[in-house]
Each structure stands twice: as C-alpha cells, then as structure tokens.
Amino acid sequence: MAMETELKLALNEADIERLRTHPLLQGAVAEGRQWLRNTYYDSPDLALARARVALRLRYQGERIIQTLKTRGQSVNGLHQRGEWEWDLSRDALAPEYLSASIWPTELPPAETLALQPVFTTDFERECWQLDHAGAAIEVALDQGWIRCGTSAVQDAILELELELKSGPAEALLSLAQALSSEVTLTPFDDSKAQRGYRLFQHGQDQN
C-alpha cells in the first residue's frame, strides 16, 4: 500500500497559460501530456460510495490499471488516503486482488457485490516533476469531463493536483502559495470520484 498525499486546487481557464509559464514550472521536469480514461465501479446500491471507497480501471496508453482508494481525510484540499494499484492484462475488473487484508471491513467481499460501471472521468493530464521545500512533488494539470453512462449528464474537470512523492506534506502548501503568485488557485476537498457520484445521483433524480 502507498499513502497518497495530494493537494487539489481549482483554477480558472484564463490562468492556464500563466501557470505553464510560471518560473517554478519552467524550471521543473516537464513530462508532457497524456489522455487518461477512467471507469469507476460500484455495487447497484452504491455500497462503495457509502464506505468512501473508490474502485476504478484506468486506461493509460496501452496500460490498464486497477486502483483501489480507501477512506481517508481531506482538509482544505489536502487529501490523504490509502491507495493500491495493479497492472492488468485484460479489460475487466480483477476482484481477486481485492483481498480481505486491504478491503474495508464494513463491506461484503468484493466478489459478491456485482460491481458495475457508474461513471467515467476522461481528461488530459499535463505533468511536471520538481523539488520544492525539501520535497519531491508531481504537479498535474487535469482538463476534461466527468460523465455518467450515455446520458448528457456531465461536469467539467479543470484542476491542479500537487502530489507528494517524498518529503514533508507541508511542502504542498508552500508550493501552492508560490504558484499563487501568478495564478488564482483555490483549495477544494471533492475528489473526482465524489463529484462523479454526485453527478450520478443528479442523473438518477432527473429520471
């Protein structure tokens, strides 16, 4: 297991180019852009959502990655939670990896839940790697959409994620403050999964 620690920040579309030309990112290692397609799964009664668990398949180039994220904490945009990832050889969930040792105890075994797609998040991610305040940090600019099924229900993604790779978590806040010298950044606590579930519920209420 890895403990994911990241800071989520909302920004305005008008600030994107100012962000890219910020001196800190100009001195960082740019890793380019890639398109990420993600499908989130849950039981018909949304048991995972109630347990604050996110289970997804990510399509990243030729890779298929299954990710499990468990309940964590989020304060002023700073998220900390458990995360497990597995590379898969087929385009389908692999419940056999979701063993009792990592699966939340309040949930029935994964293989009994009839897991099915609930919503998707499809976005372009532009990444930079840099060292700041004694920490190694990945900066990711995400732009795209959250969608539910084939309906017209969707929500835009435009956010900056600062993910801690090593070092003190306080460095994320320091970097956010430094980047804010050129662009307006606002911390927010909702993950893409939380927004996806809210969008799904909205679609259900409209039916």
Automatic annotation (TrEMBL):
Q: Which CDD domains match?
A: CYTH-like_Pase_CHAD (cd07756)
Pfam family example for this protein?
CYTH
Q: Where is the CYTH domain?
A: 2-203
Q: Which PANTHER family match?
A: INORGANIC TRIPHOSPHATASE
The name on file for this protein is CYTH domain-containing protein
Organism ancestry: Bacteria, Pseudomonadati, Pseudomonadota, Gammaproteobacteria, Oceanospirillales
